[in-house]
Design brief:
There is one protein chain. With about 350 residues, the chain is an alpha+beta fold. Helices cover about 40% and strands about 15% of the residues. Strands 11-6-1-2-3-12 form a 6-stranded mixed β-sheet, sandwiched between helices. Helix 2 crosses helix 9. The longest helix is centred in the N-terminal third of the chain and has 34 residues. About 10% of the residues have low confidence.
Length: about 350
């Protein structure tokens, strides 16, 4: 043994009495680890709840490991996210409706059936839902031209957000990605919603005929109703508008039954879902903004017909796009809606 090693051994022996007992130290480490996991879980649940309320339809994401971790107390969610003042100024959220139904083995193999900007004005009067056509042609950072829906496949939500931000000039406070598993779960949790359809159609998914008019839409109806486009007069444009109708119906349901103001009910939606949602943004800020909304009845904005290009794709709001995107950025959508009634959901 070298002199250095002997000196180190002697030093350790002199200070051995100062070493704390292993048992208590291990217990404190374990307790700290449990608390850290619980804090992370609370942050995830708060973000999921914010997305549910912001989109009116997004179900909370509950990752696989959540099933093996303790559910945080409701009071933690309340104290952390309902008691602080809501942020001021307008808020913009990008909502991506993924077509993932666990059909593909690779979870990245997905496209965006729905691309929507959710705009909440500074006065918090109501939310605006601005649909962007999924077949609209956009340019990737490398110069390649693709459909807007394909950005989710080529680079996930981050690329979709970057492309939409470049197209519109809008800076997003959050990006929410949901799929049909999540929509089914939250619809079942709230007992279905009353949704009004402007035209009847027979679903290619379950063979059921959905009548024109208002009716109860349950969890089993989510995919047939929100995926319907081949039997609709204006195809995917009517599908986008039915998605907006569904979001509005769910938001009204959540407001009417007191969910917006009740952290316990928010958490019940969270634990009802198992997966199907990704959130990028500040969950606490989103939740506080949602709680301050004046009305759950959102205004839907969308194209009505195909604006075709030689490539088979389409132009995105070729006539009103510049003014529309400027209105989002300047927080003047209320005036734009009055000036452009043909683009508003009826």
């Amino acid at each position: 043994m070298s002199p250095i090693e002997e000196e180190l051994r002697a030093t350790f022996e002199r200070h051995e009495v100062m070493t704390p007992a292993v048992g208590p130290v291990r217990a404190r480490i374990d307790l700290a680890w449990v608390r850290a996991k619980r804090r992370r879980l609370i942050r995830r649940i708060a973000g999921a709840a914010a997305a549910v309320l912001m989109a009116g339809a997004a179900v909370p994401v509950v990752l696989e490991q959540w099933q093996h971790e303790p559910t945080p107390p409701v009071s933690s969610l309340s104290d952390a996210h309902y008691s602080e003042p809501a942020a001021t100024g307008p808020l913009n959220v990008l909502l991506l409706g993924s077509d993932n139904r666990l059909r593909a083995r690779d979870p990245r193999d997905r496209r965006a059936d729905t691309v929507m900007i959710i705009h909440v004005p500074a006065d918090r009067s109501r939310a605006y839902l601005v649909s962007l056509p999924r077949d609209g042609e956009v340019r990737l950072p490398d110069g390649a031209k693709v459909k807007l829906s394909e950005t989710l496949f080529f680079g996930g939500p981050d690329l979709s957000e970057k492309v939409v931000a470049g197209l519109t000039g809008v800076t997003f406070d959050a990006t929410v990605t949901i799929d049909f598993r999540a929509l089914r779960a939250v619809t079942e949790a709230v007992g279905g919603v009353q949704m009004c359809l402007p035209q009847a159609f027979k679903s290619v998914h379950n063979g059921k005929t959905y009548a024109k008019g208002c009716q109860q839409v349950g969890a089993a109806d989510v995919v047939p109703v929100l995926q319907a486009r081949y039997r609709l007069a204006n195809g995917s444009y009517d599908r986008d508008r039915n998605t907006q109708r569904f979001l509005r119906a769910l938001a009204v349901k959540l407001a009417a039954d007191g969910t917006f103001a009740d952290p316990a009910r928010v958490r019940s939606l969270v634990v009802a879902g198992k997966d199907g949602l990704q959130i990028k943004g500040d969950p606490a800020a989103l939740l506080r903004v949602v709680a301050s909304l004046g009305s759950p009845e959102a205004v839907g904005i969308g194209e009505r017909t195909f604006q075709g290009m030689a490539s088979g794709r389409e132009r995105i709001y070729p006539k009103v796009g510049p003014r529309l995107f400027e209105a989002i950025r300047a927080d003047t959508l209320r005036a734009w809606v009055v000036e452009n009634p043909t683009f508003i959901l009826k």
